[in-house]
Every structure is written in C-alpha cells, then in structure tokens.
Design goal:
Elements lengths: L2 E4 L7 E4 L10 H16 L8 H53 L1 H14 L4 H14 L7 H7 L3 H12 L12 E6 L4 H18 L2 E4 L1 H10 L12 H6 L6 E6 L2 H4 L7 E5 L9 E2 L3 H10 L4 E4 L2 E6 L13 E3 L2 E5 L7 E7 L2 E14 L7 H4 L23 E8 L7 E3 L5 E4 L8 E5 L2 E6 L4 E6 L4 E4 L4 H12 L17
Parallel strand pairs: 3-4, 3-5, 5-6, 6-7
Antiparallel strand pairs: 1-2, 8-20, 9-10, 9-19, 11-13, 11-17, 12-13, 12-16, 13-14, 14-15, 16-19, 17-18
Helix pairs in contact: 1-2, 2-3, 2-5
Bound molecules: nicotinamide-adenine-dinucleotide (NAD) and adenosine-5'-triphosphate.
Keywords: ATP-binding, Kinase, NAD, NADP, Nucleotide-binding, Transferase
Catalytic activity: NAD(+) + ATP = ADP + NADP(+) + H(+)
GO molecular function, one term: ATP binding
Length: 497
C-alpha cells in the first residue's frame, strides 16, 4: 500500500512513498497527511511541464487523488446510510418497548395500546418476538439489517413484501394424502430406530398406508410382527406402478438417499447423513415436520435431473441406445483406472464445443452444483424454483460443464442453457476408454467411438423445503459448506479519516 507525502527532492510535486509496505494505512497520522496532500493536490493547477515525465507523473497523481476523494465521499454516504438505519432501528425498538410496557400494565394504557396494536397487527408478533430474541441473542450494540428491513417498513414497503410472500411457491393437497413411502439409508442403526418409530406414529396417529423397501420390511418384521401392515414391492414392475399409489416420499439418510428414489412424488428428506446439503428436515422434530407437511401447503424446490443415454459405436443407429439414466447431481466421464489423459470431444446441439484433455468432465444439474462439480472448481448455482399451480418461474436454470483437472491453462467451467443437448464422444484415436458414472454410481465403460448424450429430463423431482428454496439453499451453503467463513475484522485499529 502507498501513502502520499510531500516530496523532499524538489519540484514541489507530490511523490509516492511506501509508508508501511506490509499493512498499508496503519498509521492514522500518515493517512491524515495523505488526505491533506490529496486536498492540496486537487487545488493545484496542473504542472506547466518542465519536462514530459513530470507532466505525466503529475497527471497520474491527480488521477489517484481524485480516486481517493471519490472513495472518501463513498464512505461518507455509507456512514449516512448506516446512521439512517440506526435511527429507524432505535425508533422501532422504542415503539416495541412502549407496547411491551403497555402489555404489562394494560389498564393504564388500554386505549392507546389497542390503537397501536391494530396498526401493527400484521407484523407485531413477529417483530416483538424478534426484538426480544434479537437483543438477547445477537444484537446488543449492533444493527441487524434483517430486523431493520422489517421495522423500517412503510405501507408501500409492506405491500411489496406481502406481494413477494405471495409469490412464494407452495404445493397444496387436493385431498388428504393417503400413502407414504419411506426410503432409508442401509446399514445404519439410528436410521433403523427412527424408521420403526416413524412407521408406528404414521400408522397410529395419521392412519396412513405405508410402503418401505423389501429390505426395510424385513428389518421391521425382525423387530416385531406388529409391522405386518407395512407394504412393499416384489419386482421392477411393481416399482414402476408405485407412483400411482404414493402421495409423499420420506427419505431417512444423507444426500445420496434422495438420488435413489424414483416415484416423482414430493420428497421430504430427513437428515441422517454427514453433510445434509439437500436434507433440510431434522429427524428430532419429525412429528412436527410431518404434521405440517401432511396438512400442507408445502414449499417446494423442483430439482431438475439430467437424462443420459449411452450410444455404442457398435450400435447400428442412434435410436438404438441403452436404457436412459436419470441423474439428480451429475454424470461424470473420467479416466477411471487408466493413467492416460481422457480425450473427450464435446458438442452442444451439434456445434463443436471443445476437446477435454484431463482427468475428465462433469455435466451437472444445478442441484449437483454443490457436489462433485463444486470440488472440481465449478460455480455453486441456486437451483430452480417452480410452482405446481402456476407457470414456471425460473431462477437459474442450466447445465454445468465442469472439467476435472484439465491440462490446459485456459479451460474454465461453463454453464450452458437448460434446453441444449450435449454429446460427449470418446474419439477413435483415444489411447484408452473412458468411464461414465451417474450420481457417483453405475459405472459404464465408454470405448472409442461411444457417445454419451445428455439433456435436461422433462420431469423434475419435487423436494419439500424447511423454509423455502432460497432460505434452505443459503442455510446449506453456510452450515454445510461453511461458505465464506472468516473471522470478523475487529473494530479497533486504524480508521479512515
Ligand atoms: N471429489 C468429490 O467431491 C466427489 C467425488 C465423487 C463423488 N462425489 C459426489 O458424491 C455424490 C454421490 O453422493 P452420495 O451421498 O451417494 O455418496 P457419498 O456418500 O460418497 O457422498 C459424497 C458427499 O457428497 C455430498 N453430496 C451429495 N450430493 C450433494 C449435493 N447435491 N450437494 C452437496 N453435497 C452433496 C454428500 O453429502 C457426501 O458428503 C456424487 O453425485 C458426486 O457429486 C464427489
Ligand atoms: N434406500 C437406499 N437404497 C440403496 N442405496 C441407498 C439408499 N439410501 C442411500 N443409499 C446409498 O447409500 C450411500 C450413502 O447414503 P447417504 O448419502 O444417504 O448417507 P451418507 O453418505 O451417510 O450421508 P451424506 O451423503 O450426507 O454424507 C449413497 O451412495 C446412497 O446412494
């Protein structure tokens, strides 16, 4: 960092000096001198050049000085804005204190109180609860912007907020849900215990039909013959008919447990895994959560999936594909156990995109953007939110195209629009085969000439939100990934003048 100081070596100009090269404006005195120097400089007329270098140097300094002044002005307006927020906060706090006082001695202030209460009826309970908790928990001397945004509301502000709330997406039950499918992570004692408890509660208190996987039914019956009423399926044909029966799916596990279910009914994911990025419901509160879900309405996130086809070079035409595979997170094409670079030719709607030479390529959904793609340097993308009963309101739809360790200085991850079809081909001259895996599973070898075709699947997977799509996403990136976590800079120390 540089400070500005009077030049002692002639010409009456100003020169840069490295006052504290390691930590910049640490000395308030030097900052003061710098700003003073800036003011003086701005008042000077430009140097009548004795030589070109001086003129150029002086012009450069004037530019720097102007930039510094603009920064100082910016700071002043930020300070004014903060003062205004603080003022509104104090006003609201005062008003709430008055209301609380009246609540404690209502006979004294009954009339005023009722009037005030009616005025505040829309947001009163939220505000007073918040204010109490806030002063206890977070903001003793600080201002919580979240709080202030509410208390600073004017009539038109609150209308705007109401409109925004109304745009929140929810799913309403047309008739009471009758049947629930519970999918559980295998080989976990806590999941097994919770599952038995949940099945009992759903049957006795909610009178629901309950489906579980054949493995889980076996486990339940080992525990007690009481669970005889629990239903399951025998074969793939019965699985394919499940969607006609099941109203809601509950998953007990981690993020991977969401990927395994295929019915298309809304999923309520309870967190019994390690990270829990996509599983916002806490198992401890399962009764309250399910109570509210079964009553509806449910705020939902629609998670788009990618539909992947492998077309073998040996196939006689493109229609002859293997069974399509749906992925919620991503399809990965990598080098597998081969030690050679993968060489993958990529096309987007038949236009050549690039040839990936590296460890491989990830084609990810926006839900998967926080999984493998993130680890390979791709962006985190807020997934798409839609409603069942309204037209789609799309936020950030797309397909992420993220290379894995590309051996190139200029390859960067891309986000392609959701409507494209991507083809990835292992070229005939490739030294080795590649491997495709789907949500981290089901590896398939791709030999030279084989192609993987990938596009957005028409039907998304609805998952229930704890609060709403945005709130859950932000909660997950903060709590799950500790995104942008840094110790807060201390208040003491040098200040801008
Ligand atoms: N280097 C990596 O980060 C890496 C490598 C292989 C696979 N994976 C991911 O693992 C996924 C499979 O998950 P799994 O649970 O079946 O296997 P797993 O148990 O091996 O999970 C890997 C981790 O990824 C997390 N995860 C999964 N989906 C996520 C999502 N959408 N957002 C944030 N985190 C997510 C899981 O919570 C888990 O901690 C694959 O789809 C792939 O994305 C990541
Ligand atoms: N019902 C199920 N049937 C078959 N496999 C399942 C089932 N539920 C989960 N799995 C698989 O078991 C593995 C681990 O499950 P899951 O991701 O739910 O738990 P976790 O790894 O402990 O949690 P997290 O993913 O949050 O770290 C995943 O690969 C997942 O696909």
């Amino acid at each position: 960092m540089f400070g500005l100081s009077e030049d002692s070596c002639g010409n009456g100009n100003v020169s840069f000096c490295c006052s504290q090269p390691d930590n910049g404006f640490n000395d308030p005195l030097s900052l003061f001198h710098s700003e003073k120097a800036v003011q003086e400089l701005l008042q000077q007329t430009p140097v009548q050049g004795t030589d070109d270098q001086h003129v150029e140097f002086s012009e450069a300094l004037r530019t720097v000085a102007k930039a510094l002044r603009r920064a100082a002005e910016g700071k002043a307006s930020a300070q004014a804005e903060a003062a205004e927020w603080k003022r509104r906060y104090e006003l609201e706090r005062e008003r709430n204190q008055r209301l609380q006082l009246k609540e404690h001695s209502p006979e004294e202030h009954n009339d005023d109180f009722n009037e005030e209460r009616t005025k505040n009826s829309t947001n009163q309970s939220m505000l007073s609860n918040h204010t109490n908790k806030q002063s206890e928990n977070c903001c003793i001397n600080e201002i919580c912007s979240h709080e202030i945004l509410q208390d600073g509301e004017t009539d038109s502000d609150s209308k705007m907020i109401q409109n925004r709330m109304m745009r929140k997406i929810s799913l309403k039950w047309e008739s009471n849900p009758q049947t629930v499918l519970i999918m559980t992570k295998p080989n976990s004692t806590s999941v097994r215990i919770l599952c038995a408890d949940m099945v009992r509660w759903l049957k006795e208190h909610k009178r629901l039909n309950i489906y579980v996987e054949p493995r889980v039914r076996g486990e339940l019956l080992t525990e007690s013959s009481y669970f005889n009423f629990v239903q399951t399926w025998k074969d793939d044909k019965e699985i394919s008919l499940l969607h006609t029966e099941v109203d809601v799916v509950v998953t007990l596990g981690g993020d991977g447990s969401i990927n395994v279910q295929r019915t298309g009914s809304p999923i309520v994911p309870f967190s019994l895994g390690s990270l829990g990025f996509m599983t916002p419901f806490y198992s401890q509160h399962y009764r309250d959560s399910l109570d509210s879900i079964l009553r509806g309405p449910i705020s939902i996130t629609l998670r788009h999936r990618l539909q992947c086809h492998v077309i073998r070079d040996a196939a006689t035409n493109e229609i002859e594909t293997e069974e399509p595979i749906l992925v919620l997170n991503e399809v990965t094409i990598d080098r597998g156990i081969s030690s050679f670079l993968t060489n993958l030719e990529c096309y987007c709607d038949n236009s050549f995109v690039t040839c990936v030479q590296g460890d491989g390529l990830i084609l990810s959904t926006t839900s998967g953007s926080t999984a493998y793609s993130l680890a390979a340097g791709g962006s985190m993308v807020h997934r798409r939110k839609l409603s069942y009963d309204r037209l789609a309101c799309s936020l950030v739809p797309g397909i992420l195209f993220t290379p894995i360790c590309p051996h190139s200085l200029s390859f960067r991850p891309l986000i392609l629009p959701e409507h494209v079809t991507i083809r990835v081909q292992v070229p005939f001259n490739s030294r080795s085969p590649a491997w495709a895996s789907f949500d981290g599973k089901d590896r398939k070898q791709l030999t030279p000439g084989d192609v993987l075709v990938c596009s957005m699947a028409p039907w998304p997977v609805p998952t229930a939100c704890q609060v709403d799509s945005t709130n859950d996403f932000l909660h997950s990136i903060h709590e799950g990934l500790h995104w942008n976590l840094r110790k807060t800079q201390s208040f003491d120390g040098p200040l801008d003048q």
